[in-house]
Amino acid sequence: MSNANKRIPVTEERWEELNELKRAGETYDDLLAELIQEHQRRQLVERAKEVREADSEELTSLNEL
Questions:
Q1: What is the mean pLDDT of residues 3-22?
Q2: pLDDT digits (tens, 9 = 90+) for 14-41
Q3: 3 secondary structure, DSSP code
Q4: C-alpha distances out from residue 63 to 8, 55, 56, Å
Q5: What is the DSSP string of 5-37?
Q6: Cα(41)–Cα(23) distance, rounded to whole angstroms?
Q7: Cβ-Cβ contacts under 8 Å for 65 (sequence gap 6 or more)
Q8: Where does the pLDDT of residue 4 fall: very low under 50, low under 70, confident under 90, or very high at 90 and above?
Q9: Element spanning 61, H or E
Q10: What's the pTM value of the predicted model, to 2 decimals?
Q11: What dihedral angle (degrees, nearest 10) is formed by the CA atoms of 40, 42, 47, 51?
């Protein structure tokens, strides 16, 4: 990963919300990485839930692949 810094414009309200989430000693880069990971996990859980709830007729049997 490059050490290049990027600027991301945010509203004052969003900046304050991010600042409230950030722990002492944590960088904003750390915080954003954590938020992204949490979002990806939620997406994975939601997708798994959708697959479990899908009608078996909608799913392709592994034998058919």
A1: 93
A2: 999 999 999 999 999 999 999 999 999 9
A3: -
A4: 48, 17, 14
A5: -------HHHHHHHHHHPPTT--HHHHHHHHHH
A6: 21
A7: none
A8: confident
A9: none
A10: 0.69
A11: 140
